[in-house]
Amino acid sequence: MSDPLIRMARVAVAYGGAPPVLHDIDFVLQPGEIVTIVGPNGSGKSTFLKAALGMVAVSGGRVTRSKRLRIGYVPQRLHLDASLPLTVARFLTLGRRLTRAEIAALLARVGVPGLAGRHMATLSGGQFQRVLLARALAGKPQLLALDEPTQGLDQPGIAAFYRLIEDVRQELGCAILLVSHDLHVVMSASDRVLCLNGHICCQGTPSAVSASPEYRALFGLGTGGALALYRHEHDHGHDHPGHATAHETHSHDH
Q1: What is the pLDDT of residues 114-138, one digit of tens each?
Q2: What CATH number has the domain spanning 6-70+142-238?
């Protein structure tokens, strides 16, 4: 097996003097793997992604990434000043050199050809997200990291965006690390799902995770993939964070 792209060992993240947002995170991402991170609001999903990518400092443990790892990142939200005269082409070339032909090819690849001269402030939600994806793809990433990339899109837009992601992955052969609340869409497409609530509650194949007691305690039953947004109090006396899989679950006080 080739070397992992990212390895996290007993990682904790805390902001200021507050209790840790994440603790005892053990995680390995292999090349070409699709891993989806799910969890309720406030469970540390975005922090997990940013810690893995080196965007936030860890307060404990260690994160190692393969040398010269090429990462494409699609943020959860990007707020641009509407008065800023920023065209799509200019946005795509911020921090990197791209020819007109390369810009056109990127936009065509993500399904929004001909937008190069448009101002970013005039794009629809779906167009904006596809331009963010085009920018993430410009560096031919080995790892594509996406933080809830379909927020604000309608159901057809969500489905189309994930189909696009899958096509891109097959072309590039890149790994994907995805934070998502679109459970019904992403679960089946993932090689592995991590269920997060301050630590890794359970992980495994989509079918194993969705059947696990931890997952059901967090998200309830019969939600049809919709996320039940409530916190779940663990009995930490029985917790072994980061080591549970969907097949070897540990007991919680529900």
Answers
A1: 999 999 999 998 999 999 999 999 9
A2: 3.40.50.300
Higher per-residue confidence, 178 vs 1: 178
pTM as predicted: 0.82
**In three state form, how does the secondary structure of the chain look?**
CCCCCEEEEEEEECCCCCCCCEEEEEEEECCCCEEEEECCCCCCHHHHHHHHHCCCCCCEEEEEECCCCCEEEECCCCCCCCCCCCEHHHHHCCCCCCCHHHHHHHHHHCCCCCCCCCEHHHCCHHHHHHHHHHHHHCCCCCEEEEECCCCCCCHHHHHHHHHHHHHHHHHHCCEEEEECCCHHHHCCCCCEEEEECCCEEEEECHHHHHCCHHHHHHHCCCCCCCCCCCCCCCCHHHCCCCCCCCCCCCCCCC
Q: Percent of the chain at pLDDT above 70?
A: 84
Q: Do 144 and 168 touch, CB atoms closer than 8 A?
A: yes
